[in-house]
Write a structure and sequence with these properties.
With 153 residues, this protein is an alpha+beta fold. It has helices at 6-11, 20-32, 81-96, 112-120, and strands at 36-42, 49-60, 63-72, 102-108, 124-134, 139-149.
């Protein structure tokens, strides 16, 4: 289960594996949300999920944007899956969410893998930062904002 993967636990800011019942309840609540689109990523040759993506549709100062969240099971890191997930997010938003012209990604500044994924897919770093509390470290960390601007001619 992806949410129980130690790296995913860390990067999502938690200290320990989630309680199965609470995770199940959380997942069902997410499926009911009208502002979130969720994808489970499976490789053709494998019988288990290798990653996930969600797109949150948010109003950012009067502009409707898609905010991404994604993860890859640590067993499958280094195979380009994260880059493919972000490419899918760009393609899906471009082709299916035609009312959206920008994709946001807020990424912890030490999450080199995710930063590399978005930069490979044409995102740009905005220079914006925000401090967030990370349960895992009981401290604050900086997140940087990356955006992808969709060219709709």
């Amino acid at each position: 289960m992806l949410r129980c993967d130690e790296e995913n636990i860390y990067w999502t800011g938690h200290r320990e594996k989630p309680d199965r019942d609470k995770l199940y309840k959380w997942y069902l609540e997410q499926l009911k949300r009208t502002d979130r689109i969720m994808f489970l990523v499976k490789a053709d040759s494998l019988d288990e999920p290798v990653g996930y993506l969600y797109l949150d549709i948010v109003n950012n100062n009067g502009e409707i944007v898609a905010e991404t969240g994604h993860g890859v099971n640590s067993k499958y890191k280094g195979r380009g899956i994260g880059t493919q997930i972000i490419k899918f997010a760009v393609d899906y938003t471009t082709n299916e969410l035609k009312h959206i012209n920008k994709i946001d990604g807020w990424i912890l500044e030490d999450n080199v893998g995710s930063i590399r994924n978005v930069l490979k897919n044409g995102y740009i770093e905005t220079g914006e930062k925000k401090r967030v509390f990370i349960d895992e470290t009981s401290g604050f960390k900086n997140m940087k904002r990356y955006i992808y601007k969709i060219n709709r001619r």
